[in-house]
Amino acid sequence: MSASFPPSPATLLLPGALRQRILSPLADRVGRGLQSLRVPAFTLPAPFGRVVARLPQQPPALALCGALNLALGRILPREDLAALEGRRLRLRVSDAGLTLDFGLASGRFRPLAAHMAADLTLTASARDYLALALREEDADTLFFSRRLLMEGDTEIGLLVKNTLDAVDWSRLRG
């Protein structure tokens, strides 16, 4: 039997069986409530976007590439992304003033200089990217409602969309 130190207030106040009867259902209800939360409709304020647009875009591009590289092989299948090798991708967050240029080189995502044209540009609001990542919205719904814009090589766009649809987010927990 392991005891945590310092003991939580619930441990001190409730005997084991009572704690199990009260806290377990409460934890289940809180968990179900969190699962039903949805990203509210929002748009980042225009002044925020204007300020961010003037900042260097390299640090957020580095962060994005770092996250994508962590996901490679875990939830993003390397073999499916081989067609992206040497291609230039651009991710625009319209209301945040962010434009992130990156690509896949030697099997790793890397930030790229912004002065060259991209093979594929995806544009959406911060809220829509968040809803896409949380699987509240799918790429098709966002695309057909014109909230996700895709410009450039449609074959690459289809590959990116199908890869996002196939991601098994539960594998991140393991």
Automatic annotation (TrEMBL):
Keyword terms, alphabetized: Ubiquinone biosynthesis
InterPro entries recorded: SCP2_sterol-bd_dom, SCP2_sterol-bd_dom_sf, UbiT
GO biological process: ubiquinone biosynthetic process
Pathway: Cofactor biosynthesis; ubiquinone biosynthesis
Presence of the UniProt keyword Secreted in the record: no
Domain SCP2 intervals: 78-165
Transmembrane segments: none
Cell membrane as UniProt keyword: no
Pfam families cross-referenced by the UniProt entry: SCP2 (PF02036)
Assigned protein family: Belongs to the UbiT family.
Function per UniProt: Required for O(2)-independent ubiquinone (coenzyme Q) biosynthesis. Likely functions as an accessory factor.
Protein name: Ubiquinone biosynthesis accessory factor UbiT
Species per Swiss-Prot/TrEMBL record: Azoarcus indigens
Source organism phylogeny: Bacteria, Pseudomonadati, Pseudomonadota, Betaproteobacteria, Rhodocyclales
